[in-house]
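**User:** I keep going back and forth on a fold encoding question. It is easy to fool oneself when nobody else works the same problem. Could you pick a protein and write out its sequence and tokenised fold? Could you put it straight underneath, so I can go through it closely?

**Assistant:**
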Amino acid sequence: MILIDAPLAAILVPLFFVVASVGIISTTGFSLAMQKHGYAAGSASALLGLLSFTFGGMILPLVGLGGSANALPMGIWIAIAELSAVACYILLIKKPFRKR
């Protein structure tokens, strides 16, 4: 959208859905991650929160290097974060399909 000089509304609508889904996905993901570890739920919650803010703090200066007049660096880092999440799921969580 940014590369083709789309109007502001064309950028804000997809960005709204990305940002709005963060609350739903992070809450559900955190609760599923702690589901089997109720004895350490407080520590696990603190660690997940710390990691979220740490990664956000590390990425923020990199987005800022692109300047304030262009949203392209933000879009690139959102795409990198989403692709990283999919890669983590495929490599760490998803079990391979086995024929019976």
User: Anything to note?
Assistant: The chain has a mean pLDDT of 83. The two ends are 46 Å apart (CA to CA). The chain is about 70% helix and 0% strand. Helices lie at 8-33, 41-64, 72-93.
